[in-house]
Amino acid sequence: MSGAAPGPGSGSSPAACRFAHYFVLCGIDADSGLEPDELAGENFDQSPLRRTFKSKVLAHYPENIEWNPFDQDAVNMLCMPKGLSFRTQTDNKDPQFHSFIITREDGSRTYGFVLTFYEEVTSKQICTAMQTLYQMHNAEHYSSVYASSSCSMDSLASSTDEGDTTSLLKLQRYNSYDISRDTLYVSKSICLITPLPFMQACKKFLIQLYKAVTSQQPPPLPLESYIHNILYEVPLPPPGRSLKFYGVYEPVICQRPGPNELPLSDYPLREAFELLGLENLVQVFTCVLLEMQILLYSQDYQRLMTVAEGITTLLFPFQWQHVYVPILPASLLHFLDAPVPYLMGLQSKEGTDRSKLELPQEANLCFVDIDNHFIELPEEFPQFPNKVDFIQELSEVLLQFGIPPEGSLHCSESATKLKNLVLKDLVNDKKNGNVSTHNISMYELLKGNETIARLQALAKRTGVTVEKMDLSASLSEKEKDLKLQCEEAELRDYQLNVQLREVFANRFTQMFADYEAFVIQTAQDMESWLTNREQMQNFDKASFLSDQPEPYLPFLSRFIETQMFATFIDNKIMSQWEEKDSLLRVFDSRIEKIRLYNVRAPTLRTSIYQKCSTLKEAGELFRQRLSAVDIVAPEPHDFCAERQVDTQSIEQRLMKMDHTAIHPHLLDMKIGQGKYEQGFFPKLQSDVLATGPTNNNRWVSRSATAQRRKDRLRQHSEHIGLDNDLREKYMQEARSLGKNLRQPKLSDLSPAVIAQTNCKFVEGLLKECRMKTKRMLVEKMGHEAVELGHGEANITGLEENTLIASLCDLLERIWSHGLQIKQGKSALWSHLIQFQDREEKQEHLAESPVALGPERRKSDSGVMLPTLRVSLIQDMRHIQNMSEIKTDVGRARAWIRLSLEKKLLSQHLKQLLSNQPLTKKLYKRYAFLRCEEEREQFLYHLLSLNAVDYFCFTSVFTTIMIPYRSVIIPIKKLSNAIITSNPWICVSGELGDTGVMQIPKNLLEMTFECQNLGKLTTVQIGHDNSGLLAKWLVDCVMVRNEITGHTYRFPCGRWLGKGIDDGSLERILIGELMTSVADEDLVKQCRTPPQQKSPTSARRLSITSLTGKTTKPNAGQIQEGIGEAVNNIVKHFHKPEKERGSLTVLLCGENGLVVALEQVFHHGFKSARIFHKNVFIWDFIEKAVAYFETTDQILDNEDDVLIQKSSCKTFCHYVNAINTAPRNIGKDGKFQILVCLGTRDRLLPQWIPLLAECPAITRMYEESALLRDRMTVNSLIRILQTIQDFTIVLEGSLIKGVDV
After folding, report:
1. CA atoms of 1098 and 1161, how far apart (whole Å)
2. Residue 1277 CA, distance from chain mean position
3. Which residues contact 21 (CB under 8 A, 6 or more apart)?
4. Cα gap 1149→1129, rounded to integer Å
5. Which residues share a beta bridge with 36?
6. How far apart are CA 906 and CA 919, in angstroms?
7. Is the dihedral angle over the CA atoms 1177, 1182, 1185, 1187 positive or is it negative?
8. What is the C-alpha to C-alpha distance for residues 449 and 414, in angstroms, rounded to an integer?
């Protein structure tokens, strides 16, 4: 907080101790007269009374404070954001209260509290100027009405009806000011600027000052006495204490939470919930947590502040880290262009609706229309965990206090009106337009009001009877009752605040109860940590997420990427070396409490909703602290009894400090000063307000000694610690890491400052891009991740999705920065569309050259896939053809995902930006996209993403139709060029398959369209063996996704045909993703392992060929291969479900289980040809089956024999089912199916010993064969037993038609 920093004041009091820093008076400068406020926008078409004019800071006291310099422009802008406004005696002139906040560049805050009221204009010059403006305006308006009505006969009728009657009557009735008849009033503001948000106390003090000005009696002391008192003699209450100081008429009490309580929040959450409704508020709260751009919109400044402060208060233990401007003056509208997360409030002009509001960027915007109870959320918006239960718990709290959870606009208005009634003293004074003295019952006054029932119930408890209440009763009694009612309502607001905040805090305590376990603390000392901060991983995100319940993940995976979470973790690490951050201290103590209650070690989190259990005690603390100071009217009433709990002990605690400030007293003023004139704020005597009293004050001297002690400590720590300046620099850099905290400077709006601000934005965007791309690479490639202590590198699908979503947000923000004119919600898509239009026009004029993709893929047969054109426009058309996407923001995101998957994102964006005339037309000079050097670096960072494979388009748009192209490549040297049979193909992927598709005869290439298959896994290829030339030697099959360009190669290298090879008419091929030639260099550096593929043709041709040229693997290598294959399957099941690759590859791929077992069965297999015919493993299997079936009866009758019997039975059953399946699978294909089924049904470990003991083994295997070695067989069984714990689901293409 600002104000907490020590430093000498202009008076003698230290900074940390003052309740208020400045008193400010803003209004009209009589000397400069009426100046239109250009900054507030052109409004000359409005009548002069509705226009805005320049206001000015008329006075502020003291002149300046070293630790909080006075910023005149900012204060003037925020005290009167609309500038001056004028009224006549017929208008409503109720005083209006609002507050504001000034956030400095370092993030510290100062609060302002403003009461704006109307004062009669006494300057003849200004009244005359207003009259002249009116005459000019009316003349102009009449002429425009008649000019438009004389256009044509048709329009004449309508304009006479509408134009003449309504416009002209309105002109006469409202838009008139006559100097001889009307009294002119102008707005004036009084303001207190304080270091802490004591809103209620400041509001009461300012209202009492205003009453003193409008009252018929002069105040007891000159106003200077009260202002001097609050500026110099009222201390800040220490944490956990209450303070009583004196206004003009009555004391004001405020309290400050203790060090172990939730931080101070004086804005009534009741109003925020009434204004937005519970459901909407939780949604906006979620947007704030995810650091989106939040724009609040309302006619009322105080509503903007109430909602902004309310929501940021509920973030505990986190803090909003980005641009925070709850009231954005009209002159700063260009700041909505900021390409950073922000929370801003914009004042809506009367009568303007949302559609007329031009916002530079809306892709990531949460728009909150407070007055109309309406919010617009960004797309792809995750829900807050346990949202339904959370809302239910909050509704219960709200209902206890009589607040409807759906919110109520009227509620809060009537409550405010009632308060205004009370506060204005109900003085019978026609100039202020207050209630006249004739009798009127309070019930009549509020009849038809929604809150009346609640107020009646409230009033009954206070002993006030509403029905018979008479406004002409004696002022003191009436004041007393209404005051009680107000104080009771205020106390209830306080209690509600505490209870609601407790429920929100409890959610975070439950969600992050174990966060400490995942904080990575590697640095030895603070200096080394701060210097390496950017390279460090501070939080083990992957482990944290794997520990969370599934429903929480969409929200949590995005939340732990935010700046507020990063800062929270940084503060945790910093607490090793320096005093704990106050929010962190409170949060950690709450987690400790939970641990004590639950006595549990960090365990797997549960998604069962746990309600807040601390509501009662939290409310009690509050009540005690408030009841200890005499907040109720002097004589106690019955309803106070329950609040006097433990009053004495609290009072004793409060007695330890002078919790009552010095009374206001007469100052040494010149004679004739402080003169009272009713209805006018006096000209204050500046010399008495410029400085504080001499140092005779107890709290000043006490804090001065404390200050000296702090200074000594600081000097000591400087000697032993880092050089302070250097340390501060490190601290600032570390804390601002990844943060673009660039608050708008409200004071200086010169073009140079705006340019400098935008320069900072450009730097920030580039830094963010560098960090995001680096993070995406580290997560995906894993090499650096392992070095950073991540353990085994892996990225969850969820985490990848989160990172890509945040890249999409970043690109949208970059494309929204410095836009000339906004078109559509997505700036990026709008730019792409305009680029497309220009390119298509040029294409019609001349065939434009298109960038070619990787060169044609050739094989030894000369057949190839035609080249896929690389075209930005083509990719856009693919997206435009997707009927599933309905919005521009969605299209832009889909296009980014597609370009990323195709490794063309950087290239496409470079092409888009190469059209410089278009970029210049769309963007202002300062825009990111027009800063050449930064733009080049940005494209370079995006280019680095080409080093890894993303499937972020394929895996997200699972239901779209995709065109595929397939090519079958035969080995022509050995095979017939033409075959007479009818070939067919079936392509399968992770999301489904195409079904069997006939290939047109002698056409090796075909295109087909089907629903997204995901990553391709297998191809089944076969033919019907008809005709004379029915034997076919296929080298491989290539299949390409025509949208993403991913090409898969399915190696075969085997014959298809009866009487050749293993007699197979169909084969199942396992795919491998091909890398384009351009990527190969990058892939060499990349650590992502290549995908496995079908076993090579050399290995599969036949057993006899193995004896020939290829070297056979030895027994050790074969056993290693089995271990590795099984190990890969075990690892597969230990990964989270969404991260697992294809199980088919692990079973049937190049290093899969089937291949490893084939190696075992091949070892020592007798290779002699019997009658010149190849012998296959399947021949051995069939011999074993024949033996089991014939020797069934001979077995002895023992227990283990029974088991053996059933194993034999199932083995024979499975082999026969495969043999009789209506498929033309060859012998090697049948062995593959047997292994897959045996693995699925956990039967392999039972079958291996049967085969090892079968008599056929001695005939078909040499003595040295692995299968004839008992120890090897036993170890093989043990290895295979390790995969029995997993549920294996086989891809349909592997076992189609086999009925077991």
Report:
1. 17
2. 51
3. 3, 65, 68, 110, 193, 194, 195, 231
4. 12
5. 53
6. 17
7. negative
8. 7
Pair 1147, 1154: CB distance under 8 Å: yes
Nearest to 1088 by CA among 1098, 1075, 1100: 1075
Sort strands 293-298 and 342-347 into parallel, antiparallel or unpaired: parallel
Closest CA to 574 of 516, 529, 513: 529
Output the six-digit token pair for 553.
């993940």
| Pairing label, strands 251-255, 242-246 | antiparallel
Q: How far apart are CA 599 and CA 592, in angstroms?
A: 10
Q: Two tokens at 77?
A: 């802008």
Instruction: Give me the average pLDDT of each 10-residue run along the chain (1300 residues).
Output: 36 61 88 69 66 85 80 86 83 87 79 91 83 80 59 40 47 63 87 90 91 84 85 84 85 84 87 91 93 90 92 91 84 78 84 68 84 85 88 90 75 43 38 36 42 48 44 54 74 87 90 84 76 76 78 87 89 85 86 72 57 66 54 26 30 45 68 62 72 54 49 46 48 46 55 72 83 78 45 54 83 86 83 90 65 45 70 89 84 91 92 90 87 89 86 86 90 66 89 87 84 90 81 89 91 85 85 69 45 49 38 85 91 77 83 90 73 74 88 56 80 90 85 92 90 87 87 91 88 81
Q: In the numeric block, which tokens belong to residue 797?
A: 């699908």
Type of residue found at 317: P
DSSP code for 783: H
Amino acid 191 reads C
Per the CB < 8 A criterion, the answer to whether 435 and 426 are in contact is yes
Give me the pLDDT at residue 147, please. 55
Tokens 């975070």 found at: 508
215 secondary structure, DSSP code = S
Plot region of 206 (φ>0 → left; ψ -120 to 50 → alpha; else → beta): alpha
CB atoms within 10 A of CB 99: 26
Which residues are paired to 298 by β-bridges? 347
Q: Residue 541 corresponds to which tokens in the numbers above?
A: 């995100």
Residues 6+ apart with CB under 8 A from 720: none
Taking alpha carbons only, the member of 714, 296, 269, 747 closest to residue 493 is 269
Helix or strand or coil: residue 969? Answer: strand
**Tokens representing 887?**
């919005």
Cβ-Cβ contacts under 8 Å for 546 (sequence gap 6 or more): 796, 1136
Is residue 505 within 8 A of residue 262, CB to CB? The reply is yes
pLDDT value at residue 114: 94
Rounded CA gap, 299 and 440, in Å?
32
CA 328 centroid distance within chain: 22
Closest among 834, 899, 846 to 870, alpha carbons compared: 899
Give the DSSP letter of residue 525: S
* pLDDT of amino acid 446: 43
Using CA atoms of 1059, 1063, 1067, 1073 in order, give the dihedral in degrees to the nearest 10. Answer: -70
Amino acid present at 455: L
Task: Write the CB contacts of 744 (distance below 8 Å, at least 6 apart in sequence).
Answer: 323, 325, 328, 332, 335, 338, 757
Pairing type for strands 374-376 and 365-369 reads antiparallel
What's the Rg (C-alpha) of the chain? 40
Distance CA 54, CA 43 (A): 13
Q: CA-based angle 175:181:187, to the nearest 5?
A: 60
| SS3 track for 1172-1236 | CECCCHHHHHHHHHHHHHHCCCCCCCCHHHHHHHHHHHHHHHHHHHHHHCCCCECHHHHHHHHHH
- Helix (H), strand (E), coil (C) string for 279-346: HHHHHHHHHHHCCCEEEEEECCHHHHHHHHHHHHHCCCCCCCCCEEEEEECHHHHHHHHCCCCEEEEE
Identify the CA nearest to 458 among candidates 481, 485, 421: 485
For residue 569, list its beta bridge partners: none
